[in-house]
What we know:
Mean pLDDT: 76
Number of helices: 21
Strand content: 15-25%
Shape: elongated
Distance between the termini: 101 Å
Oligomer: single chain
Largest sheet: 6 strands, antiparallel
Structural class: alpha+beta
Amino acid sequence: xxxxxxxxxxxxxxxxxxxxxxxxxxxxxxxxxxxxxxxxxxxxxxxxxxxxxxxxxxxxxxxxxxxxxxxxxxxxxxxxxxxxxxxxxxxxxxxxxxxxxxxxxxxxxxxxxxxxxxxxxxxxxxxxxxxxxxxxxxxxxxxxxxxxxxxxxxxxxxxxxxxxxxxxxxxxxxxxxxxxxxxxxxxxxxxxxxxxxxxxxxxxxxxxxxxxxxxxxxxxxxxxxxxxxxxxxxxxxxxxxxxxxxxxxxxxxxxxxxxxxxxxxxxxxxxxxxxxxxxxxxxxxxxxxxxxxxxxxxxxxxxxxxxxxxxxxxxxxxxxxxxxxxxxxxxxxxxxxxxxxxxxxxxxxxxxxxxxxxxxxxxxxxxxxxxxxxxxxxxxxxxxxxxxxxxxxxxxxxxxxxxxxxxxxxxxxxxxxxxxxxxxxxxxxxxxxxxxxxxxxxxxxxxxxxxxxxxxxxxxxxxxxxxxxxxxxxxxxxxxxxxxxxxxxxxxxxxxxxxxxxxxxxxxxxxxxxxxxxxxxxxxxxxxxxxxxxxxxxxxxxxxxxxxxxxxxxxxxxxxxxxxxxxxxxxxxxxxxxxxxxxxxxxxxxxxxxxxxxxxxxxxxxxxxxxxxxxxxxxxxxxxxxxxxxxxxxxxxxxxxxxxxxxxxxxxxxxxxxxxxxxxxxxxxxxxxxxxxxxxxxxxxxxxxxxxxxxxxxxxxxxxxxxxxxxxxxxxxxxxxxxxxxxxxxxxxxxxxxxxxxxxxxxxxxxxxxxx
Length: 756
């Protein structure tokens, strides 16, 4: 569970009260330092702020003419028309931002973090954004970022309701994002390396006096103010307050535990400190002192600290900037939005169109020309010919005019120079902003949808810097919330976290489970207070858009490869927006091959599904295969028995041949002893050679018969009908070979081969 002391939790639970050890003298020093820092930050960024306010005012009605020019033209009765084309350009870029949907993901970066808890923390971040309506806050900042070059929002902690002690994290807007003052020495785009930050708030004078009666506004900006510009903090209408965030240096005592956990012993429980010191004495842990910081918040006016210090959980100043185009030129940092460079082109367009309208308006309408006699008596009809729709125009015949009748004079021709200036000014606006007609949806010469989208994306490249900086700020917001989670959600509670698909699930945080030792659980489920986690970020289409794209892609794939349809139908059903589409996908998945079902179960962490029973056709094929195997085993067993009989018969025949040879040799020896017998009998030599040759052949046959191994015993088959009788048509031995008696198998014994 959480490893924070009661005093620290008390500071988190009471964000509007100062710490107990905050003395008036300390607050005076804090305020004096804050005022010096305000003066430095205000001067460093004053030019950027002033020009940013001008850029925003330029988009408002009446803001596109310089004040002196407007006064001169209006005093002379000349029109000052505005044909705002920059508003559409800004709306195009902010519209692209609104179509993006941030996907903040969390990953574990040490051994104590785990994947499931990382997903829970990501769900908590989405929960915080959902309960805060963060999308509206992000887009409001983008509406300032794109035209003026800067916007802001912040992350706060607040009580979940007025009847609970549990705090929640929330994203809050900063209406005047241009007025935020940062540490001038900070260089990172997210300003996470800044040491301080000011958020000015101009409060109505009457409301200020009701809320802070002990700090009268008459004293604000007095003669003893210690910095220039203090008089701006109090006017007849408003009083300026400022949220002052500061990083205060502290010494941190860190312990590396045997399991790799890093504990902060600075404000830890005494038992945790004693445990770490005991392990360090045994050489099983490391304790070191490091330079660190804590983040605190104060509320100040020009003379006093009104609230604070309040300890901010986490390691970041919880203020998020979102910049437009920012450049550093030497020691000067400039910042702008899309309006800055397009002002002159917009003014030229307004001037040319206003002048063109003025010229046309001053030109008379086309009159009718004729003699006096032709109009005599019909003056009223002809006088209203340009304002009323008369069915006919009567006139008198004038002999002096011959056959001519009254004719209309050619209408005035507009100035081609003014029209050309208007066209060039309109093109200049496109060239400066990088947003052309195709990006705004105007028809072009492309005919295919892909070509139109490619042209629109090409037009978005010039404005992608705003989207990229917006993405970076969203990611930094996720990092701030991630650093706050272990401090704010450090008790056992249940949250309604939001999944990536927008579904809300109930998740229990920091829940003890398993066996307890001495009343303390050894396992805590979804413990967000341990482990280190980092934020990854993905910016793309919304989940609904991705779902529709997946559905269209799967449909196109099935049309291209119809044979693959059974393998992807469950994914197609899951990508639909029908009611019960998830259940339909699950039912279709049961018909997938077993290996795919096992893979899906492994990816989702579910147990593997049981194997499907074989179909009747498969059962029949398996039974036929088993019967065939049994027949083959029977035949092999019979062959082995035949070989055994053959072996014994060969041995018996060999013994008979050997006995006969011995008898012949004995007789030959006896005959050789008789008087007159020859010294040697050639038959004996032939018999000995024949016996040796026969012995060699028999030995080879015995070796081959011995090399045949019996097959392993087959598994006991399932009860089946008795098999058919074994075949009796055994293959006879080749001529000259020894045979065996099959009578042992119940068959009639044929005569020995080679016997008469």
